[in-house]
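Replying to the earlier thread about multi-chain prediction with a worked example.

Input:
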Amino acid sequence: MIFLDNAGTTPVLEECKKIVDRCLTEDFFNPSALYAPSIEVSRKIKEARESVLSDLRGAGNLLFTASGSESDNTALFCTKKANGSRIIVSKNEHPAVLNCAQELKQRGFDVVFCEVDGCGRVLEDSFRNLMTENTSLVSIMHVNNETGAINDVKNLCRIAKEINPSVIFHSDGVQAVGKIKVNLTDLNVDLYSIGGHKIHAPKGIAGLYIKKGVTIRPYIFGGGQEGGLRSSTENVGGILSFAYAVREAVRCQKESAERIGLLRKSIIDELGEGFLAVDGEKQSPYILCLAMKFVRGEVMLHSLEKYGIYIGTGSACSSKKSHKNLPTILGLTPEYENGIIRVSFNRFTSENDIECFKKALKSEYNTLLKYVRG
Amino acid sequence: MEKIIMVRVGELFLKGNNRKYFVTLLDKNILAALNGLEFRFHSTQNRMYVEKYEEDDEGEILRRLQCVFGVSSLSPAWKVESDFEKIRMLCDEISPKKGQFRVTVNRADKRIQKKSMEIAADIGGYMLSKSPERKVNLFTYDFDVNVDMREDGFSYVFYEKIVASGGLPVGCGGNGMLLLSGGIDSPVAAYCMAKRGVKIYAVHFHSFPYTSELAKEKVINLAKILVPYCGEIELSVVPFTDIQYAIKENCPIEYMITIMRRFMMKISQKLAESKNCGAILTGESLGQVASQTMESIQVTNSVVTLPVFRPLIGMDKTEIIEIARKIGTFDTSILPYEDCCTVFLPKNPVIKPSIEKAVEYENRIPNGAELIENAIRNVEVLQIR
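Result:
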C-alpha cells in the first residue's frame, strides 16, 4: 500500500501504540483520583503538556481536546468578543473554522472573509483592508489543508495587533506542526490549534495553545479537568502518545521537509500534458494539489486504488461542500475544475512510493482520457 | 395472567387448502424477524401468539412484527384462563379507574354457553361496581375492553389493534430478481413486490472507478433497510465498467443508456435463472426519465423472456417518495453518490429508441457475449441480513 493522503490522517507510530497500550492496561488509573498510581498518571499528563509547549516554543497553556475541529470551535466560540464586532477568517479555512464563522454570523457578528491568491494564500492587502479597530477575532490557518500554502501568520498577526492591540488572533496549525517550523512565541498568536493524527498520533487527541494572558470560557462543565476549561476524564493514552508524536515530528522536521520537498518537486517536474500543479512560493512540502484536464478527481482516486495507492480529492462534485470553493480560488477553467486531486505525504514517504505513484498516475490518466463524458 | 402479543393474519384466510402452507411460511418469517430476542411463539388455527418475552422488549417485538408481510394486525394482550371470575377481576384490575368504556366480547370457544352480549354485560357490571367513576357508553368511549375467548381454553384481553403491513408472507409468491440502483424507486419496488409474497434477490451494477465504494455501501445499506420487510436479501454486485467502456467505444452516445440497460436486463435474466427467480423486478415508472418511456421500455424489455414486474409503473414520484419515507429508504436513497447510470450520461439520450437500431448498434460491440460472461463470473455476492 502506498498511502498518499496524509493530510487526511497518518499511520500511528509504533511507540505511540505502545504508550497507548500501557495507558489502557498498567496505567489505566483516573488521573483525578488520590492514590499514588493516579497521581503518577496525572504527573505524566503535566509533563506531556510541558513537552508539547516546549517543542513548539509556546509561552502559556495547552488545552488538550479531542480533535482539531474541537480546538477550532473552542477558539472561535469561547473567546470574549463584543456583540456585533468584526470577525475575520480567510476564504479557504477548514470547515471547522468556516462553519463556526457562518454560525457566528447568524448570531449577529460582522463576519468577513479575507481574499486569498491562486495558491490559497491569504493576501496581505485584503487582510489589512478588512482589519479594523472593532475586530475582536481573527482566524487564519497556518498551512492550508487543500493546497499546502503557508500563510505569513507572524506578519498578519503583527498587522492585526497594530490596528487593534486587543484582538484575539487564532491560527489553525493542524497541517503545520511537524511539517514546517512552528515557533509559537515568534508567531505571537493568541490561540493555535494542533492535531494528533496528522503527525502519527492516534485519532481523538488534539490541542489548543492559549497564550499567557488570553482567557477562554469553559465549554464543558463537570469535574474541572483541564483547569476547569474542559471537564472530561483525560484521554491519557492519547495525551502521552501525542506528546511523543510532537517531539518526534519536531525533531525530524527540518531534515524530512527537505527530503519530501524534493519528492514533491519531482512529481511536478514530470507532470505531463493535462495537469496543473498548485505550487506557490511559500509552500508546505507535504501537500501537492493537482488539477487534471477532463478527468474527474474522484475517478482518478478510485483508479489508483487498484494499485493500492490512496490519494485525496478536491472534487467539486463531492458531497463535501468545503471543496466547492477550491476551483474558484485556484482560478481553474471548466475543463479542470472537476479534476482536483490532493496528494499528501508524511515523513516516511519513500522515493519508491513516489515513483510508483508517478507511473500509475500517468498511465491511468491516459486510459481514463479515452472515456471522458461525451 | 401473562402479557402476550396476539398476531392476526389477513388474506391467508382466503387461500383455502393452501392455508397450511401460508401459515407455515409466515411462522418461519415471524421467527426470523424476532431473531435475537427471548420469546416463545405458538400458532393456532386463526391466531399466533408471542409469549414469555422480556416485558421491556414488547415495543421492539411490535415494531418488528409490524414489518412482516402476512400479519394484518397486532394486539398486546393479557392472557387468562377462560374463567369468568378471573376474567372479571383482570378486566377491572388493568382498566383505568375512571372514564367511559365499553366491553366487546368475541366468543370463539363455542363450548361456553353464555352469549357474548351477556358476558360483556356481566364484565361491564362488575367493572362498574368496582369503580363508581366508570361509565358505560357503547358509542363514545375512552377505552374498549376487548375479550377474545379462544378455543384453546384461554381468553385474551386487549385495548388496541395495531395495524400491521398486511400482504402475503414473503416466499409464497416465488423469487424475483430486483434491479437495485441506489435511487429512490428500486427499494420501493422491492417493498411492493415483497408485500405480494415475492422473495427478493437483488442485482446492482457497479462502475468502479466511476462510482465509489460509497455508492456500493449505499446500496448495501438500502438492502439492509429492506430486510425487516423482505427478509434476508442476496445481493449480486456486477462489475459493469468494461461493458460501459465497450458501449462508449462502439455505439452512438445517444444510445448509451438504452444499450446499457439492455445489457443490464440480459445479465439480470441470467442471474435470475441461476437463483430460480420467476421474474425480473424494476422500479421503473412510466415517463419518469428518458429510459422509462414506453418505447425505451419496449427496447430494453425485448432482450428478456422472463416477465418483468414494474410495480411503480403507474405511480407519481410523490407517491413513490411517500412509500420510501414510510419504509425508511428515502434518506439513504438521496445521498449524493453517483450510480452507474449517471456516469456516462449523454447530454441528449434518445427518448424514442427503436429495437432495430439498438440491435444494430449493439452488434458493433465485437465481444458482447463474452463481456456478459465475464461480468457474471466476477459477480460479488453479498448476503444482506
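The interface with chain B takes residues 298-303, 305-306, 317, 319, 370-371, 373-374 of chain A (CB under 8 Å).

Feel free to reuse this layout for your own posts.
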